[in-house]
Amino acid sequence: MPLSLSRPDLLRTQNFINARWCEGRDGRTLPVSDPALDVTIASVPDSGAADARAAVDAAYAAGPAWRAVPAKQRAQILKRWNALILAHQEDLGRLISREQGKPLAEGRGEVAYAASYVEWFAEEAVRAYGDIIPAPVSGRRMMVLKEPVGVVAAITPWNFPAAMIARKIAPALAAGCTVVAKPAEDTPLTSLALARLAEEAGVPAGVLNIVVASRERAAEVVDVWLADGRVRKITFTGSTPVGKHLARESAGTLKKLSLELGGNAPFIVFDDADLDKAVDGLMAAKFRNGGQTCVSPNRIFVHQLVHDAFVEKLAARVGALKVGPATDPGSQIGPMINERAVQKIERHVRDAIAKGAHAVVGGERHQLGGNYFAPTVLIDVDATMACSCEETFGPVVAINRFSDEMEVIAAANDTPFGLAAYFFSGDVKRIWRLAEALQTGIVGINEGALAAEAAPFGGIKESGYGREGSRYGLDDYMQTKYLCQTL
Ligand code: NAD
């Protein structure tokens, strides 16, 4: 099926450097495919070191003028960008769905979610206050200024092609930074369309630059940014191994870092929980984007007294999910991003079943074939199974039983990761105990949908550091300068 947009010029297939749309300098290209059909829908540059350097040159040159633009004007440009994103929600939603595979309703929803960060940071841009500090000695004035860090390099994953990049670019631009960005190789088209709209909104030349590269050449591009002392911050969302690599390699020039990495979220249902709400919460948290989210519940712990009732309610809901391509308006679960992703899910399910788990729904690839996996509920899961140790990143609910609060807290925290956790309980004292005991950056309490532009999103432990969204999200793109004046 051809990719048709009401504004065909939003389908951009070139790099965006210094306000010019350009091919990669060495002419190499990268196909972009639709994971539902495994067909190529576009061809983009497979860029290398020379393109990465050109992007930094442009961003560095544009820096002084951009930081000198009054915050109110920067905010107005961001507000125009927000309005344009929302005005083109349908086209952007289609692009997301075609290159990433999520159902069209979710694609449209992601556009609104991405725009909410642009709007939020437009509003925050004018509130980057410093401080006046009461001086400890007379005859002095002591002040704190907030300044932009400088050139920011943003590297993003494929699972939210609009939201991940918007929530990095928007705070960077709001703070007065300039940006070089490399979107994920599977989903570059949405980022390029967003850059087209940013250009239309009045973002000046060089302030935003997008360089596309294949997985094989991602390191070549990013290594240039890591080594270049003019790049003062790396903001990355993706896997923990790549995040650790970036942390090591940016040490040479001591850049500021924000790392939003993998998770292994626990989801706990106590015997005093409202089971219907818990099932609703799990459906919302687990099956968004077919389970391909970093906050997706990966280990489900259900109290033994409510285990069978919970599984029965859940199985009915999961068994009724409609699997299909994004182009089918009834689809609730799309294809996984690629064959590699399906193989990982299959390995986890087979490993669990071989070690004693049982599939009460699904348990194998979906009959549609290709990159589809059947929504699955596994019971009798334990901590030794691969699905408990690694992110499955697919539509698989892996259920463990528990009987004791202390035991389940210990199990939930028994992971190197610490991004999100969820629990359902009706006991106020238990709610406070759990909220404080869970070792994650985000805790959902009787709630499965957590992300919002007004809230700080990010992890602890090996899920990374730094926060996106909220007032903390702007601070990550600023540095603190102390001024001391003798009168
Ligand atoms: P990934 O780490 O493989 O890729 C992410 C980005 O890094 C891509 O742009 C890729 O091209 C780039 N990259 C890959 N190797 C690189 C290298 N050697 N040097 C520089 N850049 C390199 O992750 P993915 O498979 O695209 O995404 C899935 C992972 O991202 C999951 O683990 C998921 O939990 C995580 N994720 C986290 C969040 C969050 O907010 N915490 C959000 C979405 C996804």
UniProtKB/TrEMBL annotation:
> A Pfam family for this UniProt protein?
Aldedh
Q: Where are the active-site residues found? A: 260
Extract the signal peptide range: none
Domain Aldehyde dehydrogenase, by residue range, is 21-482
Record-linked InterPro entries: Ald_DH/histidinol_DH, Ald_DH_C, Ald_DH_CS_GLU, Ald_DH_N, Aldehyde_DH_dom, Aldehyde_DH_Superfamily, Succ_semiAld_DH
Q: What Gene3D superfamilies has UniProt attached to this entry?
A: Aldehyde Dehydrogenase, Chain A, domain 1, Aldehyde Dehydrogenase, Chain A, domain 2
For whether the record's keyword set contains Oxidoreductase, the answer is: yes
Query: Which terms are listed as keywords in the entry?
Result: Oxidoreductase
Protein family according to the UniProt entry: Belongs to the aldehyde dehydrogenase family.
- The protein, known as: NAD-dependent succinate-semialdehyde dehydrogenase
Q: What is the lineage of its organism?
A: Bacteria, Pseudomonadati, Pseudomonadota, Betaproteobacteria, Burkholderiales
